[in-house]
């Protein structure tokens, strides 16, 4: 059961990875050029909504017992923490390491953005979400710690 949930969770992650990055790049290359972390945050928020529906109805469909409003509140609380976890590497890359134009060329900036936000940030947030969703949001049985 756990293996099947992990595979489904990873598939949902793949879909939301595409949604997140599509929104992020659309915003950061158009109206939020000067605010890449804000653009990333918006991309994550859109992907989080998609993630809730897919995880609720597919990945963890056989779990839980919580009422939907309570479950949704927990899901979005866990996801809010994941959003922070996800944007911290991008913020550090851009502002602490100065991996942005004019300190580096545009190609280096974009590679650093992708590596920090879409690889490292997503990986850290994914680990957090999988653990927290199983433990608190979609427990094996209501009231257990999964």
From TrEMBL:
The keyword DNA-binding does not apply. The chain crosses the membrane at residues 7-26, 38-54, 74-92, 112-131. It comes from Saccharomonospora piscinae. It comes from the Bacteria. One of its GO terms (cellular component) is plasma membrane. The keyword GTP-binding does not apply. It is found in: Membrane. InterPro entries: GtrA_CellWall_Glycosyl, GtrA_DPMS_TM. Its main location: membrane. Belongs to the GtrA family. This is GtrA/DPMS transmembrane domain-containing protein. GO terms for biological process: polysaccharide biosynthetic process. Residues 8-138 form the GtrA/DPMS transmembrane domain. It holds the Pfam family GtrA_DPMS_TM. Keywords: Membrane, Transmembrane, Transmembrane helix. It is a multi-pass membrane protein.
């Amino acid at each position: 059961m756990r293996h099947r949930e992990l595979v489904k969770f990873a598939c949902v992650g793949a879909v939301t990875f595409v949604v997140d990055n599509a929104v992020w790049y659309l915003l950061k290359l158009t109206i939020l050029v000067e605010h890449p972390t804000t653009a990333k945050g918006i991309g994550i928020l859109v992907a989080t909504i998609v993630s809730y529906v897919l995880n609720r109805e597919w990945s963890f469909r056989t779990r839980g017992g919580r009422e939907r409003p309570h479950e949704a509140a927990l899901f979005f609380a866990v996801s809010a923490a994941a959003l922070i976890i996800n944007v911290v590497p991008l913020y550090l890359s851009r502002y602490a390491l100065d991996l942005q134009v004019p300190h580096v060329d545009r190609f280096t900036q974009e590679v650093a953005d992708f590596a920090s936000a879409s690889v490292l940030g997503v990986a850290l947030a994914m680990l957090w979400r999988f653990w927290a969703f199983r433990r608190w949001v979609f427990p094996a049985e209501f009231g257990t710690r999964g």
